[in-house]
Specification:
Radius of gyration: 25 Å
Number of strands: 10
Number of domains: 2
Low-confidence stretches: none
Number of helices: 16
Helix content: 40-55%
Largest sheet: 8 strands, parallel, barrel
CATH class of the largest domain: Alpha Beta
Mean pLDDT: 94
Structural class: alpha/beta
Order of helices and strands: HEHEHEHEHHEHEHEHEHHEHHEHHH
CATH superfamily of the largest domain: Aldolase class I
Distance between the termini: 46 Å
Length: 411
C-alpha cells in the first residue's frame, strides 16, 4: 500500500515548503565548536579521523576541522585532518575557525598549502550592542577589523566565510554594514549566528530574509548564506528550518548537540528531518554509529530517550503498542510496523522496532519476544513471563526471560 494512503501528512498540506534534494548542505562543527563544550574530552587525532570518515559516509558536505591558531595541538590536529581528507580523497570540504586577526588566519593558509587543499577561513567577531559595550568596540573599529582580516585572508588564497557572533541580537543597520563590507572585501559566504540561543523560529526567519534582501541581493555576488544556532531555548532545530525556509543555503551543526553551554544544533537530527522532509536522499545507516563514536571519543553520553539514536528511540514495552506492532508484522508489511507507532521509520536509519517485556506489557509482548528468539510459545510459558513482568519494577532483561523459559521447561 502506498505511503500516502497509510499516512495523511499535514506537514505538506499547506503552502509552506522546503527546498528540493541537493539544495541545502550541512557544515559539521563537532570537531571545533562541539569541543568547546566544558564537559567534553578532546579526542585523540585517531578518534577525530574516525569521526571524519563517518561524516563522509553520511554525506555531510562541509566540516570545521579546528581553530589552528589556538595552539600547537590544535594546529597539528587540524593539519592531520586536512591531509586525511586529501589522502582518502574525501568529498567533504574543510573550513577552519579564526578570529578576524592575521595570527589566526595565517595558520589556516599554511595548513592549506601543506595539505594541498582549499580550506575556507571562518573569520568571526562579535557584533551585538552588548558585546560592543563590554569590549569598548566602536562600529568603525569592527568595520576596519573586518576589512583588514578578509583582505588578508583573500590575499593568502583562502576562500572566506565571514561570521558575526550574536547576529540575532545585532541592529539591522550594523548587520547590513558589516556583511556588506565583508562581501565587498571578498567574502563569498556569510554566517548568521544565534550564538547564545536567543532566537525563535520567527527571529531566524526574519534575520535570514533581511540579509538576503538587504545585503546579498544588492551585492550582485553569488553569496552562500549559512545559519549557526545554539540550543539554549530548545529551539535550535526549529530555528534552522526557519532559516532554510527564509533562504539559508547551509546549516551548521554538531553531533549529539555538543557545543558551548547546552550545545549547537544537532547534526543527526538535522539529517533525520532533512531526510523525512525530502531535502536529502542518502544512506543514513551509519547515523547511530556516528553519534556513538562521538560520544565515546568525547567521554559524553547519549540520553536513552534521545531521538533516533537513543537506546529507547524504537523500543516499547507497552502492551497496546506491542499488540499493534505484532498485527502489523503479521500482515507481512514491514513498512506498516515501522510507522504504526513511530513518526520516524527506524529502517531509514539502519535500525528496527524493538518490543520489550515489562510491567506495562501485555501477553503480546511475551509472544513477540518468544517468536523473535525462536522459542516455541505455549500458554504456561507466556503466562509465566507475563506474571514475572507484572511483578517487576522495570523491563525484564533477555537473560531473565531465558531463565524463565528454562525453569518452565523443567516443570
Amino acid at each position: 500500500m502506498a505511503e500516502d494512503v497509510l499516512i495523511y501528512d499535514w506537514n505538506t498540506a499547506g503552502e509552506f515548503s522546503f527546498p528540493a534534494v541537493g539544495k541545502i548542505t550541512l557544515d559539521d562543527e563537532t570537531l571545533r565548536d562541539g569541543l568547546q563544550n566544558p564537559s567534553v574530552h578532546d579526542p585523540s587525532i585517531g578518534e577525530k579521523i574516525d569521526i571524519l570518515h563517518l561524516m563522509e559516509a553520511l554525506g555531510i558536505e562541509m566540516v570545521n576541522i579546528g581553530l589552528p591558531g589556538a595552539g600547537a595541538r590544535a594546529y597539528a590536529d587540524t593539519e592531520a585532518l586536512a591531509k586525511e581528507i586529501v589522502c582518502a580523497r574525501m568529498k567533504i570540504r574543510p573550513n577552519c575557525a579564526a578570529r578576524t586577526h592575521e595570527n589566526d588566519i595565517r595558520p589556516i593558509a599554511e595548513i592549506s598549502q601543506r595539505a594541498g587543499i582549499a580550506i575556507e577561513a571562518a573569520t568571526f567577531l562579535g557584533s551585538s550592542p552588548v558585546r560592543r559595550l563590554v569590549e569598548d568596540w566602536s562600529v568603525d573599529h569592527l568595520l576596519k577589523i573586518t576589512e583588514n582580516a578578509i583582505k588578508f585572508a583573500v590575499a593568502q588564497g583562502l576562500p572566506v566565510m565571514y561570521v558575526t557572533e550574536d547576529t540575532v541580537r545585532t541592529e539591522p543597520e550594523i548587520v547590513q554594514a558589516l556583511y556588506s563590507t565583508a562581501i565587498h572585501c571578498g567574502a563569498r559566504a556569510v554566517v548568521l549566528c544565534d550564538t547564545v540561543g536567543h532566537a525563535t523560529p520567527m527571529g531566524a526567519y526574519n534575520l535570514v530574509k533581511f540579509v538576503r534582501e538587504k545585503v546579498v541581493m544588492p551585492s550582485g555576488e553569488s553569496i552562500r548564506v549559512d545559519w549557526h544556532g545554539h540550543c539554549d531555548r530548545g529551539l535550535a532545530i526549529a530555528n534552522s528550518f526557519a532559516a532554510i525556509a527564509a533562504g539559508a543555503n547551509q546549516v551548521h551543526a554538531a553531533a549529539n548537540s555538543l557545543g558551548e553551554r547546552v550545545g549547537n544544533t544537532p547534526t543527526e537530527l538535522m539529517l533525520v528531518n532533512m531526510r523525512l522532509l525530502g531535502m536529502i536522499d542518502r544512506d543514513l545507516s551509519k547515523l547511530k554509529e556516528f553519534c556513538e563514536t562521538v560520544a565515546r571519543a568525547t567521554h559524553t553520553t547519549i540520553p536513552a530517550n534521545y531521538p533516533v539514536v537513543g537506546r529507547d528511540a524504537f523500543r516499547t514495552a507497552t502492551g497496546v503498542h506491542a499488540a499493534a506492532l505484532m498485527k502489523a508484522y503479521r500482515k507481512g508489511d514491514s513498512r506498516l510496523a515501522d510507522v504504526v507507532y513511530s513518526g520516524v521509520p527506524a529502517s531509514l536509519f539502519g535500525l528496527e522496532q524493538v518490543i520489550e517485556v515489562g510491567p506495562l506489557s501485555g501477553k503480546s509482548n511475551a509472544l513477540y519476544w518468544l517468536e523473535k528468539h525462536g522459542i516455541p510459545a505455549n500458554d504456561d510459558l507466556v503466562n509465566r513471563i507475563f506474571q514475572a513482568a507484572k511483578s517487576a519494577s522495570r523491563v525484564l532483561t533477555d537473560a531473565e526471560i531465558y531463565a524463565l523459559c528454562r525453569e518452565t521447561a523443567r516443570r
